Every structure is written in structure tokens, then in C-alpha cells.
Amino acid sequence: MSYLFTDNLEKYLDIHIMDRHFIFKEMERYADENDFPIVGPQVGQLLYILTRISNARKVFEIGSGFGYSALWFGLGMKDTGTVVCTEHSEENINRAQEYLRSVDILRSTLTFHRGNGIDILSKSNDHYDIIFNDANKEDYPKVFDTAKSKLKKNGLLISDNVLWHGQVTEPEQDHKTAGVVEYNKAIFNSDNFFSSIIPIRDGVSVSVKL
Ligand SMILES: C[S@@+](CC[C@H](N)C(=O)[O-])C[C@H]1O[C@@H](n2cnc3c(N)ncnc32)[C@H](O)[C@@H]1O
Description:
alpha/beta, Rossmann fold, binds S-adenosylmethionine, 21% strand
């Protein structure tokens, strides 16, 4: 689903989707039928490319849902590697594990941790090639504060929904919009990151740690 483009442009983008493993299509169908917000294939294939060109081996995800975005990271890895998935809901984690059983081409490992991904990241002793943020929008500023010390040099901090249905330009902002706006200011004002917003779907920010 797009929030930003005309219907025609959206249809055009939707026909420029790479062929993908059948399980992605099943996950997309489930998301559609259950109104579950996943990144979708346009963003998924971007995550795959960013993983591949950065040669990422260690990815940390905040807000994994039922594993759709995590699977794009996992398949983007050239070789072995790990995607650390974090999710509040046990039901979502169980569903993710069920889907992943059907994917026999994965060389990387996806591990699932139930709880608040920001807290789990803050307690992690590892440093990551990519941190992917799809947390609750009001928590985005906290994600930046936590993630900046947990990335390797040249590591990528990627966030979904940074244009938040276009609401980031509205004068009246609820707490979710305010969280996203504060996050965007932080990534563009930091001397330690170089950032860009890619306006596909709901906007994806990519910030490289300098
Ligand atoms: C937009 S959905 C994620 C979808 C997933 N990234 C994908 O595209 O396939 C957001 C999910 O993150 C979870 N969530 C939100 N904030 C979280 C946090 N701080 N820690 C762990 N899970 C979180 C919610 O339970 C929900 O399942």
C-alpha cells in the first residue's frame, strides 16, 4: 500500500517488483487479509539490495512482526549471517517461525526474541552492520539514541515510515508523527551519520554511520 504516490505511479512501481520466493507472497496475502502493516515488496527489495551491497552479516531488527522484513534481510545476505528479530507479540513470533519453516534456501539464521527491541538492543554487546527500525513511531527518537552506539562504522540505520502517510508536513502533529519528525531531525542533524530519505511506499530513511 502506498500513501504518497498517485494510483498510476503506484501501479507502475508495483509492476517493477522482482520475482520472489513464494513464501513472501503468502506473507503478503496474510498481511493484506489481516490489515497487518508489513514493509511490502517495494521496500523489501530495497532492504535486500542494501544488505547485499553492504555485505552485511549481522542485522538487528526492532519490530519484526511475523518476519517479512527479516526474511528480505536474510535472503539479501550473500553468505551465512544472523538477523536478530525482536517483537512484542508471541503470536507474531510463532507465525514467523511457521513461515520460515518453508524457506529452505536461507543460508543465514533468523533468531527471534520476545520483548522491547530497543531494550534488547541497548543490552546487546554486539555491533551490527544494519539496524532496521520498524518500532512504534513515538519511540523513533529513542531508537536513534540507542542504535547509534550499536552500529559498526559504515553500518546502516534504516527506518520505515519516515514520511508517515505525509503527516510529517502537517502543522498539527499527534505523538506518533512528532516521534517521526524528531527522528528525521536527529538523523539529519547528527555529525556522525549521513542520511537520505527514499520516498517509496511510506518513506524509508537510510543513514550510514561515518
Ligand atoms: C509495522 S509492524 C512490523 C512489520 C515488519 N517489520 C515487516 O515489515 O514485516 C510493527 C511490529 O513491531 C512490533 N513492535 C513495535 N515496537 C516494538 C518494539 N519496541 N519492540 C518490539 N516489537 C515492537 C509490533 O508488535 C508489530 O508487530
